[in-house]
Design a protein that fits this description.
The chain is mainly beta. It is built from 2 helices and 11 strands. The chain has a single domain (6-137), classed as Rossmann fold. Helix 1 crosses helix 2. The longest helix is centred in the C-terminal third of the chain and has 12 residues, at 128-139. Residues 9-80 form the HPr kinase/phosphorylase C-terminal domain.
């Protein structure tokens, strides 16, 4: 990350080279979703604290140096995980109990001057990690490209 990077409160994992930004209020399950995705092969970028910047129209996310490689797991504390350096964010998911049942297309989120697709997912769903992966494949930047 360059000195132009800004701190941002969110969680991010890297799946097949693309970043999945996880947003939601404290206690909504951002870290739990990240842990489930890591168990399915994702790699941690940052938990609850990232550095983000726009570069060439893309949103880049990297770990904050104070929390690099750490994931907060409720009832266990901060645990160390392998961590990606920087990833281009392809999709933002917002954990929201009022998420719509059906969407035809993703919304857009502007962060640091970069527009990324965004959609809401209900956090209390037993298949939430699978839904997040499917959302990345269907709505994320670069969807349909061979990975």
């Amino acid at each position: 990350m360059t000195p132009a990077a800004h701190p941002y409160q969110a969680t991010c994992v890297e799946i097949d080279g693309r970043g999945l930004l996880i947003l939601g209020p404290s206690g909504s399950g951002k870290s739990s979703l990240a842990l489930s995705l890591i168990d399915r092969g994702a790699r941690l970028v940052g938990d609850d604290s990232l550095l983000v910047e726009e570069r060439d129209g893309r949103l880049l996310a990297g770990p904050h140096p104070n929390t690099r490689g750490l994931l907060e797991i409720r009832n266990l504390g901060l645990l160390a995980f392998p961590c990606a350096q920087v990833v281009a964010v392809a999709l933002a998911v917002v954990l929201d109990p009022a998420a719509p049942r059906y969407i035809e297309e993703a919304s857009s989120l502007d962060l640091c001057g970069a527009a990324i697709p965004s959609l809401a997912l209900c956090p209390h769903d037993s298949v939430l990690p699978l839904k997040a992966e499917l959302a990345l494949r269907r709505f994320g930047l670069g969807a349909g490209l061979s990975q």
